[in-house]
Amino acid sequence: MNDTQHNESAVLRRYLLGQSDAGERSAVERRLMTDREYLEALTRTEEEMIDEYARGNFDAHEKEMFESLFLNVPERREKIAFARAFNRYVARHPRAPSSKEPGILPASVWQRITTVVALATVILLALLSGFVYRRFVQARADLAAVEAQRNASETRERAAAEKLKEQQKRNDELEHEIATFRQPPPSATPDLFTLALTSGWTRGSGSVPTAKLSPALKRVSLELAVASESHYGRYSTELQTVEGKTMWTRGPLHSQRDSGREVVTISIAASGLPQGDYLVMLNGVTTDGSSEKVGSYYFKVVKR
Length: 304
Known about the structure:
This protein has two domains: about 5-160, no CATH class; about 190-304, Immunoglobulins (Immunoglobulin-like, Sandwich), CATH 2.60.40. It is about 50% helix and about 20% strand. The chain is built from six helices and nine strands; from the N terminus they run ααααααβββββββββ. The strands form two sheets. Strands 2-9-8-4-5 form a five-stranded mixed β-sheet, with no helix packed on it. The longest helix has about 80 residues, at about 105-180.
């Protein structure tokens, strides 16, 4: 045995006895998954250790490690039991003196024949068990590879889901910022203030649409953007304070198309809007005359 083989045998012996550190154990297991000759060397080392244990050639420390770790596998226990039985058989049947009677084989010849047959049986069983063990190790390696691929795939899927969730959140924030900073177009009429409103605003949700009214302004025009899924021919509105007091109701009203949007416009006297926070409720009127809530629009009035 050259130095390389001796070193490999020592490494595998430590691995089988559970004496390898984490780095050496990881290196051995990675090599076992890819190097069949290394796997065969592991099997040979295992068989040598079984024979040593059966003959009682282990020191106390190795014997303790061997029994606590190596014998956890039922297949190995069966191998050791067989090896012990064979050694006891050989020890109890020493080579007998040769017989001088003509035509009768000497006892030594029968002893050698019995030994050869028993040894052949042991070798055959060892080869068979080694083959089964190699298949087990290979199957375990294949299972570990499949499990690693599955874990990697799940990790990629989770990362993609998180990235999609973050992108959706960012899109929502951008839409909110666009709606927040969208300013109403300047009014062509000096005494009219126009305020575009989008349904869904609540107090505390960020910058609030605000009507800043100067003494010169006479009227306020509120443009209520209607949700795209609404399909009503007529609408009614109700203006409330945030405390729930109804200021007035209007209807029936009709929507108009403005820059690709469906808008319901209401006009209010500026003098009828004291400074404060307001809520406009928009209801769709069905063909049978009943009302269904379409949206709510929050805005603020500031007097200058």
